[in-house]
Amino acid sequence: MCGKKDVPNDMSRAEEAEMKVIIDTDPGQDDAAAIMLALGSPEIELLGVTAVAGNVPLSLTERNARYVCELSGRTDVRVFAGADGPLKGDTVTAEHAHGKTGLDGPEIFEPSLTLQCTSAIDFIVETLMEEPVESVTICAIGPLTNIALALKKQPEIGRRIKRIVLMGGGYFAQGNVTPSAEFNIYADPEAATIVFACEAPIVMMPLDVTHKILTTKERMDRLAAIGNNASEALVKMLTFYGRHTSAKYGGDGGPLHDPTTVAWLLCPDLFNGRMCNVEIETQSPLTRGATVVDWWGVTKRRKNALVVQNADAEGFFKLLTERVANLI
Ligand code: BDR
Ligand code: CA
User: Fold this and answer.
1) How far is the CA of 256 from the centre of ligand 1 (A)?
2) Band of the pLDDT at 131, cuts 50, 70, 90?
3) Residue 5 CA, ligand 1 centroid: distance in Å
4) What is the pLDDT of residues 80-114, one digit of tens each?
5) β-pairing verdict for 305-311 and 278-280
6) How many Å apart are CA 1 and CA 8, to the nearest integer?
7) % helix, strand, coil for the chain, step of 5
8) DSSP-derived secondary structure letter, 127
9) Phi and psi (nearest 5°) for 24?
C-alpha cells in the first residue's frame, strides 16, 4: 500500500500503470499539485487532461494545464479544452485566490506542448465508450461542466465510468465563496446536479477534509528540498496560494484541495468518510451551490457519494513529496 515506486521509462509506463485516469481541471495552483502527483505516480496512466473554465477563463486553464505537464517533463500528455462557462448563468472565476494567471507564483513560460483539436467533451465520451467498462476513473477538480456535458451527450458513459473522484462542496465546513457554497460547485450547480445523479460511483473531497491538509512551512520546505523544476515551481505556486488562504482562514499555510483526489486513488487508507446522499441546491439565491449532505442518514435518498471527512495530512504530504521527486 502506497509503497515508493520509481518512474518507469516511457516504454513501460502504460504497462506498469494500474489505473487509467482522466483529470478534468481548471489550473489553479492546487490543480497543478494534483496533476504533478498523477504524473509522478507510475500506478496512473494519465489518458488526458481536460480543461474547463473555473479559477480563470478557459484560455488560461488550458494553457496552464499544458504548462504544468511540460514543466514536469511530460510533453506526451494530451490536453483538451472543454467548456468556457457553466451550463447556466455567468462564469465565476477566482483570480482573487489564484492570481491573474491562475498559477501566480513562478514565472510561467508559454508551453510548446500543443492543445488537442478534439474538444474535452468528445474526448471524455469517446474514451469512455472505447475503453473497457469501469476501467477509467475521472478526477474532477474544477467546476463539473465538462463532465455534465459529456453525460448529457452520451448518458451511457455514466455506467461505464469506474469512479468519479471530485473535489467540491462542504458539509461541516460549509462554503468558501459564499457562506454555504464551495467554489467548484458554486461555479456550476446545474452541472454538479447532473454529476451527482449519474450512475458512476462518486468520491467527494469536500472542504471538510481539504481544510485539514495545510501547506505548512515545514511541509513546503520538504517539497523545496527536492530541488527539481516541478518542485521549485510548485513551492512558488503553493506559497502564493497559501498566502491568500492562510490570511483568510488563519493557521500555518493554506488548505490544499485538489491533489486529495489523486491521493485517494493512490492511497485510500489515508482518508476516511461515509456513504451519504448528496444533493445540490440550485434554486435559493442565498444557498445556491450548497451541497446538501445527508450525513446522519435522515432521508431514504440514494447514497450517491463517499463523502470524505478526515485525512492523514502528514501521510498525504509524504506521498506528494515522494511523487513530485519522480518528476524532472
Ligand atoms: C476549489 O476551487 C478552486 O479554486 C480550487 O482549485 C479547488 O478546486 C476549492 O474550493
Ligand atoms: Ca481546481
Assistant:
1) 9
2) very high
3) 28
4) 999 999 999 999 999 999 999 999 999 999 999 99
5) unpaired
6) 18
7) 40, 15, 45
8) H
9) -105, 125
Contacts of 114 (CB under 8 A, 6+ apart): 66
pLDDT at 112: 98
Is pLDDT of 8 > 70?
no
The set of residues, in sequence order, having a beta carbon less than 8 Å from that of 34 and lying 6+ positions away, is 23, 25, 139, 141, 258, 259, 261, 262
- The answer to whether residue 211 is catalytic is no
Closest CA relative to residue 221, chosen from 213, 231, 212: 231
Contact 310, 205 (CB under 8 A): no
With beta carbons less than 8 A apart as the criterion, state whether 204 and 307 touch: yes
Check whether 14 has a pLDDT greater than 70: no
Rounded Cα–Cα distance for residues 174 and 183 (Å): 11
Residue with cell 518512474: 7
| Cα of 63 from ligand 2 centre, angstroms | 14
- Fill in the amino acid letter for 106: P
Q: Centre a 10 Å sphere on the Cβ of residue 197 and count the other Cβ atoms it contains.
A: 14
Give residues with Cβ within 8 angstroms of 184, minimum separation 6: 54, 140, 141, 142, 143, 144, 166, 167, 168, 169, 192
Residues sharing a CB contact under 8 Å with residue 189, sequence separation 6 or more, in sequence order: 181, 280, 281, 282, 288, 289
For the segment 283-299, the average pLDDT, to the nearest whole number, is: 98
When pLDDT is cut at 50, 70 and 90, the band that residue 2 belongs to is low
Cα 143 from Cα 33, distance rounded (Å)? 17
Query: 13-324 domain in CATH 3.90.245.10?
Result: yes
Residues with CB under 6 A from ligand 1: 28, 30-31, 55, 94, 97, 141-142, 167, 176, 182-184, 257-258
Residue-averaged pLDDT of the chain: 94
Domain extent listing, the chain: 13-324
